[in-house]
Amino acid sequence: MDTFFKLPIHRKLSVHKTPGSMWGYSGAHAHRFSSQLPWKETLSFPYHDNTLEPVVTNYFKSTIGEDFEQTGETFQKYCGAMKQLGMKLIELLAMSLGVDRLHYRDLFEEGCSIMRCNNYPSCQQPSLTLGTGPHCDPTSLTILHQDHVGGLHVFADNKWQTVPPRLDAFVVNIGDTFTALSNGRYKSCLHRAVVNKYKERKSLAFFLCPKEDKLVRAPNDIVSMDGTKHYPDFTWSHLLHFTQNHYRADQATLPNFTKWLLSSKTTHTS
Hints:
The protein is of the alpha+beta class. It has one domain: Jelly Rolls (Sandwich), CATH 2.60.120.330. Helix content is 34%, strand content 21%. The chain is built from nine helices and twelve strands. Helix 3 packs across helix 4 (69-96) and helix 8 crosses helix 9 (253-269). The chain is globular, with a radius of gyration of 19 Å. Its cofactor is L-ascorbate. Pfam families: 2OG-FeII_Oxy.
């Protein structure tokens, strides 16, 4: 990761994200923020394991350059391990909800997940910016690995609390999609990243996503026990389109997406 972020800016910009795309390099998202630009740069790329092709390795070779083939191979293995871990976590979450442990497996097995490398440079005036503003991840699960520099905050017990970095552990966040899949029993994790004056910070975030055309729907047993269905059926492609084209992810993404989705359906049927 260091190798990429230390490249000359013109080389990084040669793989910059294009409007509407999830993949590539990005500095401050100036086109999406009116104030307090995030003090970070990212590299995002896809991972799925429903092909024999090494998707990540090929991405690095074809997009960044042949000199990044080894880096691509490393991230190919890392993403494979994260997908396996994510699927195990989904099984545990299903069991905790009282449904069959394999209930959600079909939803995620062929999904295209998102891998994101984050670099937060040191900032001379850290009080004027954030690495990443307060938000909940739209995805299902986020598996995060931090370096030794702290900066991740979660909102719990009505205050921001620091998540100390541990090199021997991952941080797992519930995202909006799994909130809907659990009928609201599991809540999306509101979090942010701050920067500091003296040290840069890096992190690796793997976002487990459903297959885009699969229906996101809470199990009938859970809805029956709860007495009401809190979220309409939707696909991951619907939510992805909403966050990429209509709405910047924040702490209210899921309720606002629900309103948008229902209004869209009303418009199409009227």
